[in-house]
C-alpha cells in the first residue's frame, strides 16, 4: 500500500491492465522493488516508460514527460531497496556492466500530498487532482508506447522498443501524443 499520492504509479498500472495493449508492451508494478526494476532494465528492452509521482514545481495533478539522461547520474548512489528513479537508473547502469540501458521516459505527476514520515496522521489514497490525473495518464502512456513501438519498427528508437514498464495505448483526447519535456495537463 502506498501513502497519499505516492500511489499514482500503481493506480496507473492497474488502469493500464484493463486496456488492450500491443503484444510487445508489458505493464509491471514494481512498487518499492527498485532492485527488480534495475535488473529488468538490463534485460535488453529498448525502451521503458516509468510512471511515478514526481514533484517538479507544477500545480498538483500536472503530468509531465521527462527523459532523464542515462549517462550522468551525478552523486546518485545506487540503492537496492529503494524506488527513487534516479537511484534505480544508477543501479541499472552499474548492473549493466557498461551495456546501454533502454531509452527511459518518465511520466510524472505533480503530487498534492507527499508523505515524509513526519506527519502525525497517515494519509491513504490519492488526492483529488492526482486521482483525476490517473485517467489522463492512461492515454498519455499508451500514446507514448505506440510512438516508441512505431519508432522501433522504423529503426528510429535509440535502443529498440520491447517493453513499457507501466503503460501503453492511444492518443491523448483531441490531439497528438505529448512530446518529451512537455507538460500535458496544467491545472
Q: How many helices does DSSP assign?
A: 4
In which range does the helix fraction lie? Answer: 25-40%
Rg, Å, rounded: 16 Å
Structural class, judged by helices and strands? alpha+beta
CATH class wording: Alpha Beta
Q: What are the key terms here?
A:
187 residues, alpha+beta, Rossmann fold, 4 helices, 29% helix, disordered C terminus, Hydrogenase maturation protease, Pept_HybD-like_dom_sf, Peptidase_A31
Can you offer a commentary on this structure?
Residues 168-178 have a biased composition (Gly residues). It comes from Streptomyces chumphonensis. Belongs to the peptidase A31 family. The protein has 187 residues and is of the alpha+beta class. The protein has a single domain, classed as Rossmann fold. Helices cover 29% and strands 10% of the residues. The protein contains four helices and three strands; from the N terminus they run ααββαβα. A three-stranded mixed sheet has the order 1-3-2. α1 (8-17) packs across α4 (128-153) and α2 packs across α3. The longest helix has 26 residues, at 128-153. The protein is globular, with a radius of gyration of 16 Å. The two termini are 27 Å apart. Mean pLDDT is 75; it is low at 157-187.
Helix-strand blueprint:
Layout: H1 8-17, H2 34-41, E1 47-53, E2 63-66, H3 85-95, E3 103-109, H4 128-153
Helix pairs in contact: 1-4, 2-3
Brief overview, please?
The protein has 187 residues and is of the alpha+beta class. 29% of the residues lie in helices and 10% in strands.
Amino acid at each position: 500500500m502506498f501513502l497519499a499520492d505516492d500511489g499514482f504509479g500503481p493506480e496507473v498500472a492497474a488502469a493500464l491492465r484493463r486496456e488492450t495493449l500491443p503484444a510487445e508492451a508489458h505493464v509491471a508494478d514494481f512498487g518499492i522493488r527498485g532492485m527488480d526494476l534495475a535488473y529488468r532494465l538490463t534485460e535488453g528492452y529498448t525502451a521503458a516508460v516509468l510512471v511515478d509521482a514526481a514533484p517538479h514545481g507544477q500545480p498538483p495533478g500536472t503530468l509531465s514527460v521527462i527523459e532523464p539522461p542515462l549517462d550522468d547520474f551525478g552523486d546518485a548512489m545506487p540503492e537496492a531497496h529503494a524506488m527513487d528513479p534516479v537511484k534505480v537508473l544508477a543501479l541499472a547502469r552499474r548492473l549493466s556492466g557498461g551495456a546501454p540501458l533502454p531509452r527511459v521516459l518518465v511520466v510524472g505527476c505533480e503530487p498534492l500530498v507527499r508523505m515524509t514520515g513526519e506527519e502525525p496522521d497517515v494519509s491513504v489514497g490519492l488526492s483529488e487532482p492526482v486521482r483525476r490525473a490517473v485517467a489522463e495518464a492512461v492515454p498519455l502512456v499508451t500514446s507514448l508506447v505506440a510512438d516508441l513501438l512505431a519508432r522501433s519498427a522504423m529503426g528510429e528508437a535509440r535502443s529498440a522498443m520491447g517493453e513499457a514498464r507501466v503503460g501503453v495505448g492511444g492518443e491523448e483526447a483531441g490531439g497528438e501524443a505529448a512530446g518529451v519535456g512537455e507538460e500535458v495537463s496544467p491545472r
